[in-house]
Amino acid sequence: MTAVPTTDANLDEIRGGALAALENVTNPTEADAWERTYLGAKGELTAFLRRLGSLPADDRPAAGRAANALKQELTAAYETRSQHLAAADLERRLAEDAIDITLPGREPALGVVHPVSRMIEELSDIFALMGFQTVFGPEVETGRYNFDLLNIPSDHPARDVWDTIIVESDREEIVLRTHTSPMQARTMEQTEPPVRVVVPGRVYRYEAQDASHEWMFHQLEGLAVDTNITMADLKGVLRELARQLFGPERRIRFRCDFFPFVEPGVDFAVDCAICNGQGCRVCKHSGWLEMGGAGMVHPKVLQGVGYDPKRYTGFAFGLGVERMVMMKEGVGDVRAFAGNDLRFLRQFARFAV
Ligand code: PHE
């Protein structure tokens, strides 16, 4: 009998040792080890419970109750300790990972609107105020829209391979549009007069590049068709455009020119805002800056889309968009626009998005 220590003394020993050891537990790994030592299947308390059988029958119930009470006490102590450790661990990680929100952020690199896009927006706004809707058309066109419906017959030199980029010629003639004028016919086919649209977009020509020629550039087409439209309307609209773009003093000049889809046809220019028409480097000492071609829509074009040329008349014009930027910003070489040189583009940083 004496070989077995009294239950109380044994439990007190276990309790004292366990609680003291728990005081020294400082992290979750140590807590796990502690739990195994005192509460686990091979732990001290379990061993004690196993020895219960060797106690006198009278002592067993009290010893069992005391052992279970201790198990509960140690479990509770273990849980409290674990919670403290977890909270302390969280505190530590929060402190370590803390972000100093008082530091100024890094400024993101913002792009700027390309000067050609900016000019297209400006032109669209000006024409919107005059009642023109902005529409867009395909850059890959059929010969029918790029040429035929514009009164450019198959033997016209503009259809020559030298200025047209041909995509497909076997079954049907498919080209990269050489101008935005195909949208004249497309628009008229889709709607009845009155028509008032502007069409900005890329155009392509198979030609040698130099300071004033690119194989890809942008145009802005204009078209107005209604009853009683005259050349005076065309002049008024283009003069208003010149003034909105280059200032209220500006005057415009029309000279005879030929385009198969207008009659009469003109080229139009604005007097140079830089020298006030006196002649300078920018206007090549002529006093005038050429803006594009224009004219009254040819009756054959109206007929081709099913409009009655006796009832309706219209005007059309085509502006070179890069050219407008060159005049306005004093850019000397058209190749700069698609050249992708950031030093050039950054000069337009004021067009920030
Ligand atoms: N499409 C012509 C060109 O590319 C310009 C133009 C448009 C002329 C409309 C007259 C009328 O040169």
Describe what this molecule looks like in 3D.
The protein is of the alpha+beta class and 353 residues long. It has eleven helices and ten strands. A hairpin with a 4-residue loop joins strand 7 (252-257) and strand 8 (262-271). Helix 1 (7-24) runs parallel beside helix 4 (60-97) and helix 2 packs antiparallel against helix 4 (60-97). It is elongated, with a radius of gyration of 44 Å. It starts with 6 loop residues before the first helix and ends in an 8-residue tail after the last helix. Residues 1-6 have low confidence and may be disordered. It binds phenylalanine.
Summed up:
The protein has 353 residues and is of the alpha+beta class. The protein is 39% helix and 19% strand. The protein has helices at 7-24, 28-38, 44-51, 60-97, 115-129, 143-146, 182-190, 231-246, 299-304, 321-329, 342-345; strands spanning 133-134, 140-142, 166-168, 174-176, 195-204, 216-226, 252-257, 262-271, 288-297, 313-320.
